[in-house]
C-alpha cells in the first residue's frame, strides 16, 4: 500500500498543479469579471431616454436570463452541452477551453448575485454624495462602491472559489487529465479504488485547507481598517 501511495502521489500532484489549479484560477478570474459586469448591468437604473431605456432593459433581460439559466441547470449538464452538444452546431472547443468556458459562465452566474448583494449594501447616500460632487457612475463604482462591496463579498466569493476547485473534478467527464481522471487511470492499473479515491480526496482537502487559510488571512487584512475605525469611535 505504501508503495502505491508513494508512486501515485507525484502523478496526482502533477495533474493538480497542471490542470486542477490552473483550471480553477482561470475560470474564477473570468467568472469574476463576468459576475461584476452582470451585477452592474442589473443594478444600474434604466436611462430616461426611450431608446436607451429600451436597449438597457433588453440588456438587463439578457443578463437576467443568463443568470437564471446557469443557476437552474446542473454544472455537469452544462459541461456536456458545451463540449459534446455544440459540435452538432458546428461549434467545437478543445476540452480545456470548454471547461474554462463552462466553469466561468457558471461561476459568473452565482457570483453575480454575491456581488450584486454586496454593491446593494453600500448606503444609497454615498452614491448621492458622489453624484453631488460631479462624479460619473463609473467613477462612483470604482472609487467608492467597489472597494466597500469587495470587502463584503470576499467571504462568499472565497467560498465559491473553494467550491470551484472541487467542481473541477467534473472535468474528468470531458477527458481532461485533472487529478480525479489520473486517479481513475491509476485505479484501472492497480485495482485499488478505495485507496486511490481516498488519496485524491486527501489532496483536494489539502488544497482547500490552504485556500481556507488564505481566505481567513485576506478577510483579516481587509477588515483591519474597520476594526481601527470602530476603536476610534
UniProtKB/TrEMBL annotation:
Superkingdom in the source lineage: Bacteria
InterPro entries noted in UniProt: AA_ABC_transptr_permease_3TM, ArtM/GltK/GlnP/TcyL/YhdX-like, MetI-like, MetI-like_sf
Topology with respect to the bilayer: Multi-pass membrane protein
Transmembrane segments: 21-44, 50-69, 76-103, 194-214
Gene Ontology cellular-component terms listed: ATP-binding cassette (ABC) transporter complex
Subcellular location: Cell membrane
One of the record's GO molecular function terms: L-cystine transmembrane transporter activity
Secretion signal span: none
Gene3D superfamilies: MetI-like (1.10.3720.10)
Family according to the record: Belongs to the binding-protein-dependent transport system permease family.
Listed name of the protein: Amino acid ABC transporter permease
Organism listed in the record: Agrilactobacillus composti DSM 18527 = JCM 14202
Amino acid at each position: 500500500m505504501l508503495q502505491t501511495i508513494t508512486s501515485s502521489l507525484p502523478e496526482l500532484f502533477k495533474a493538480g498543479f497542471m490542470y486542477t489549479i490552473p483550471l480553477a484560477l482561470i475560470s474564477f478570474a473570468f467568472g469574476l469579471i463576468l459576475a461584476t459586469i452582470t451585477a452592474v448591468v442589473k443594478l444600474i437604473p434604466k436611462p430616461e431616454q426611450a431608446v436607451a431605456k429600451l436597449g438597457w432593459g433588453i440588456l438587463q433581460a439578457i443578463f437576467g436570463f443568463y443568470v437564471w439559466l446557469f443557476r437552474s441547470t446542473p454544472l455537469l449538464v452544462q459541461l456536456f452541452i458545451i463540449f459534446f452538444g455544440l459540435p452538432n452546431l458546428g461549434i467545437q472547443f478543445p476540452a480545456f477551453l470548454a471547461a474554462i468556458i463552462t466553469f466561468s459562465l457558471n461561476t459568473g452566474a452565482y457570483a453575480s448575485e454575491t456581488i450584486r448583494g454586496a454593491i446593494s449594501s453600500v448606503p444609497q447616500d454615498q452614491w448621492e454624495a458622489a453624484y453631488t460632487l460631479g462624479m460619473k457612475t463609473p467613477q462612483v463604482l470604482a472609487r467608492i462602491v467597489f472597494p466597500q462591496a469587495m470587502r463584503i463579498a470576499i467571504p462568499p466569493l472565497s467560498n465559491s472559489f473553494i467550491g470551484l476547485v472541487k467542481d473541477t473534478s467534473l472535468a474528468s467527464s470531458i477527458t481532461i487529465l485533472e487529478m480525479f481522471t489520473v486517479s481513475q487511470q491509476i485505479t484501472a492499473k492497480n485495482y485499488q479504488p478505495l485507496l486511490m479515491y481516498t488519496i485524491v480526496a486527501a489532496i483536494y482537502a489539502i488544497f482547500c485547507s490552504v485556500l481556507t487559510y488564505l481566505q481567513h488571512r485576506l478577510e483579516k487584512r481587509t477588515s483591519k481598517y474597520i476594526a481601527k475605525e470602530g476603536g476610534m469611535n
